[in-house]
Design brief:
The complex is a heterodimer of chains A (119) and B (394). In chain A, helix 1 links the parallel strand 1 and strand 2. Helix content of chain A is 38%, strand content 20%. In chain A, strands 2-1-3-4-5 form a 5-stranded parallel β-sheet, with helices on both faces. With 119 residues, chain A is of the alpha/beta class. With 394 residues, chain B is of the alpha+beta class. In chain B, the strands form 2 sheets. Chain B has a 5-stranded mixed β-sheet. Chain B has a two-stranded antiparallel ribbon with strand order 1-3. In chain B, helix 2 packs parallel to helix 3 and helix 6 runs antiparallel to helix 8. The longest helix of chain B is centred in the N-terminal third of the chain and has 70 residues. The chains are: A alpha/beta (119), B alpha+beta (394). Chains A and B meet through helix 1 of A and helix 3 and helix 4 of B.
Chain lengths: 119, 394
Amino acid sequence: MKMVLIADDSETILLLMRTRLELAGYEVTTAADGQEVVERVAERVPDLLLLDAMMPRKSGIDALRELHAAGHRIPTLIVSAHQNPGDADAPTDLEIDGFVTKPIDFDRLLASIADLTGA
Amino acid sequence: MAVIGVGRFIQKRQDFEDAIARSYQVEMTARVRIAEGRGGAAARQVVQRQAARRENLRTNISNDTRDTALLVAAGLLAGLTGALLLFSGLIASLRRPLEELVDAAGRLAAGDLSARVEVGGLSETATLGTAFNEMADQLQLQAKEREQLDRLKDEFVLTASHELRSPLTSVQGFAELLMLERETLTSKQVETVEIILDNCRHLVRLLNDLLDLARSDAGRLAIKMRPTELAPLIDEVVRTLRAQTEGAHQSLSEELEPGMPSISAEPDRIRQILVNLITNAHEYSPEGASIGVRARVVGDEVEVSVSDDGPGIPESQLEHIFERFVRGDAGLTQRVGGTGLGLAISKSLVELHGGTIEAESTPGEGSTFRFRLPLRPAAAAGAETGRATVDSSP
């Protein structure tokens, strides 16, 4: 079973995404901020990262930058509240596999995840 | 100088008269001696010499008179010129500050709030200059305050629409979750969830539109131009929206000129404009209406039009149709789900592409919305950071 690590500072959003992903047959772990993302990856490397761009303490982008520096190359989707992602959240120095806008179109999200994890 | 000249001339005239008088006196003395018979040749000589001397004196004085007259004339001319110079200097000292004021006022009126005048000249113009500068200071201060307020408003809308997205994601997401198990729901419950989802979609549209307008106002609505084929784009939008129009038994036709060249545009934004225009035609037209989308090359522009044979737009509304939150008579149809922002955004997007948009309508016969985009944008780079004008609601 493919494992997805989801990070968002909203518990409700985490619950929503966990439910949808588990229904689609993924194993899910969650993190409330970027720091927890780094810790979870240290415990076990997931098949995909689904990171909120803006989180307190450490943003998804900063966590990803740290993971890349540590040599981790995990397929990553960035969740952004921006209507046109790339406007504000897109880092120019990081390779990102895709953007997901809020409100989330789950059909598209699940298709991207399946694509990136080869599930 | 003329005065000295004239003074000297009077002195000379005096000397001349004295000399003439003396000469006559000498001559008279000589003539008396001749008359008395004691003058002889010497006395006659004196008479002759005196006559010659007077002649000489007269010539001299006449020269002096002419010179003096010339001197006086020259003096008068110089005086007049001096007076003129003095007068024009006075006028200039009045005119220069006034001209500067007129110039600065013109620049101020044209929007250059940094326009100031140099205070100087006569006390009246100096006072005027000081008053003008104070007024300009005040205007500049007010403009800065207004700019700050505008920026705060833009920031607020951007942040608010951003913050609203997370709870909206939850509401929509959980409603969708319920719908995943619709077979366990009663039909009443399904209907309820569908209403929730409908309103979520409406809220998303409203948020997106508000965000676009706030970005446009803040000059942050960027257009990423790239070569774009219009025909497939229009075709795709029409096919996507056909489900909606067919639901209302409306016909949606397209008429695309073959071989249209590609234009420089952001496809997503052109799609957004088309969706806005076709959705409007669909929502404001009754069941069974015909909607036509046409595209053709006109001169050095591409013209895209969306026409319907719906109820049309009254003239009083037509002139405000591109202002935000101006909507047609929604009472006509219950299906209208627009935000009242679509046309304002479309206008701003068309303008960011360097194009124009217009609406025409005959009440009772239908409406046509038409936008034109340049085949070769004059300044694609400029348009990228360009700021479109969006009509504010009155």
